[in-house]
Amino acid sequence: MFTLDQLRCFVAVAENLHFGRAAEELSMTQPPLSRQIQKLEKSLGTELVRRTHRKVELTAAGATFLDQARLVLSHATRAGESAVQASRGLRGRLSLGYTAAAGLTLLGPILTLAKERMPDVTVELHQMVTSRQLEALEDGRINAGLGRLSSASEDFRADLIHTEGLVLAAPTGHELLSGRHLHREDVAGHPLIMHSADGARYFYDLVVRNFSIDHSDVSHSLSQITTMISLVAAGHGIALVPESATKLNFPGVGYRQFDDLRRDIVELQLITSADNATPTASRLKELLDAAPAEWAG
C-alpha cells in the first residue's frame, strides 16, 4: 500500500513535470524523490511518470491518478486539522446537563457563547438536578453540568460562574409580601414548601444554614423549583427560591428579597470531571473564565 509521502512526491512531480523543481519544493534531493515514485508505481503495479532525458510527462494512468491523489491528500489534511481542533475542544460534541433554574438564567447566554466561539461543536442539552448530573458525569453521559455542589468533592471540579439571591415566593396578597421590611425570621410559622434533602441537596443545605426551619412547618419537599412555584401559586405555602425563579412569571405568585440576606448567596457552578474533563468541556470553561463579568446579562 502506498503512503501519503509517496502521494506528495507524485503530486509535486506531476505539477512541476520536473524532478529537480519537485525535489526543491519538497526540500529533498532527487534520488530519494525518484525512489518514492518508483515505490508508488510498484505498489500500484503501473507506470505513472514517464521520464526521458528531455522531459517528464504523466502516463494516462498518472493523469487519472493525479486527481485522486490530490483528493486523498486533501482529506488527510482536513482529518489532521479536525483532530487538532477536537483536541482543543473546537470540534466534536458537548453534552451539557443543566438544572431548571440554570435554564432560566445562564443556559441561553452560554449557548450563544458556545455558538459564537465553538461553532463546530454540537451541543446536546439534558435537564437534570445536580445529583443526576454527577451520576451522568461519572458514566460519561454528559461532559459538563450547570449545577450546584453543596460541598467539595475529589471526583468533580466545580467552578463558580454565577451568583444570585435567595428570595421569598408567596401567594399574591400574602402578608409577607407587604410591610416595610422582610427578615429571615419572618418565615417562621408559615407553611413552607421546602427543597428536598435528596433531590435538591444544595438548596436544602442553603436554606437550613440561613433560616431557622421548624420542620413541622414544611408542607411539601420537592426537587424541582418550577413545581414549588406552582404549589405556591395554588396557595399551599411559601417557598425560598433563587432570584432567577422570578422569571417564571407564574400568575398568583409574588416575590420579595430579604433585608438581612446577601444578594449573592446562591451559586451556580460549571461541574466537570476532576481528572477526565473532555476537550469541549475544558474549552467551555476557558470561554466562561475569559468572558466579562456582565456576560450573562
Automatic annotation (TrEMBL):
Residues 2-59 form the HTH lysR-type domain. GO terms for cellular component: protein-DNA complex. The keyword DNA-binding applies. Pfam families: HTH_1 (PF00126), LysR_substrate (PF03466). GO terms for molecular function: DNA binding; DNA-binding transcription factor activity. It comes from the Bacteria. Keywords: DNA-binding, Transcription, Transcription regulation. Signal peptide: none annotated. Belongs to the LysR transcriptional regulatory family. PANTHER family: HCA OPERON TRANSCRIPTIONAL ACTIVATOR HCAR, TRANSCRIPTIONAL DUAL REGULATOR HCAR-RELATED. This is LysR family transcriptional regulator.
